[in-house]
Amino acid sequence: MSILVEQGGLLTTVQDRGRRGWQQYGVPVAGAMDQQAMMLANLLVDNDEGEAVLEATVLGPALRFQTANVFAVTGGDLSPQLNGQVIPMYRAVAAGAGDKLTFGGLKTGFRAYIAFAGGLDVPLVMNSRSTHLRGKFGGYEGRRLMPGDEIGFAAPRPTLPNLPARRCDPEEIPGAELWLRVIRGPQDKAFTPKGLDTFFSSEYTITNECDRTGAKLEGSGIEHVKDGNIISDGIAFGSVQVPSNGQPIIMLADRLPTGGYTKIATVISVDIPRLAQSKPGTKIRFREVSVQQAQDLYVQAMGRRRELAQRIRGAAVAADVRRFLVRLEGREYQVSVERCE
């Protein structure tokens, strides 16, 4: 009950929500770069939203199904194909034993997420199946997937109730320009008024020095009061560090738990998926929002996802229920029968 990796793609790893609760011990979080795409992929195949998926960057893998199972692809469009036929994104698809999932090339975005019904059978390491590449632990042997790797399915499902209803609209994929909303600080006092104005009024470009740890930006230098060094403190997903050279770095999923550079701002949670789908060369500008605004936007996003989950699951259940009028001893009864696998 598994998939065989025939080609690993440029960078394909096992990721879930991340290794949370261990930063105090110096353990990085890791996890999916685009958490929204990961959660939607799992929702489409009837998994828990935080179940482990495959994250593919730029060039997707070639996977051979050894066992029939349902899967879904979300996030960046890397041109998924099943047995050479183009398949839609953001839709549950049934694959049979021997079928081959491949990717033709990058169309939009930067990272795709592949979820499999029942989840992937890889070990839990500190309550997570996520791969941390620099630490060489978690996921599949702590590394990217390579030809010949075989990953088991935990509980494969050859079909799901009302498969055609398991679909949703694609998420917004950024183009060549991206506005990111940020909360100022925590070290905003380490920058001059001119430096703060530069940060919020200038355009920055994602450089080729961009990976799962962080995205280095290039643009107008941001002026410090002294320099960019501080006593190391905690780093959040989306923290914008500014070293003494004045060039910002946005810290991402594989960031270390602490760092010693001043942080001018933090990208809000709902904008991180768009950042995760942005490739080198993308132009970025920053817009300040309050903590309350960021929280309101997060609550709204969670509400939309709950509504989507109810719609998908409700449609699947409704389509698999049969209703009958039964007459028994002169009385009529409305009976509903739901098919169970």
UniProtKB/TrEMBL annotation:
InterPro entries: CT_A_B, Cyclophilin-like_dom_sf, PxpC
UniProt keyword Zinc, yes or no: no
The keyword ATP-binding is assigned to this record: yes
GO MF annotations in UniProt: ATP binding; hydrolase activity; transferase activity
Keyword tags: ATP-binding, Hydrolase, Nucleotide-binding, Transferase
Domain Carboxyltransferase, chain residue ranges per copy: 24-305
Gene3D superfamilies in UniProt: Cyclophilin-like
UniProt-listed PANTHER family: 5-OXOPROLINASE SUBUNIT C
NCBIfam families, alphabetized: urea_amlyse_rel
Name of the protein in question: Biotin-dependent carboxyltransferase family protein
Native source species: Oscillibacter hominis
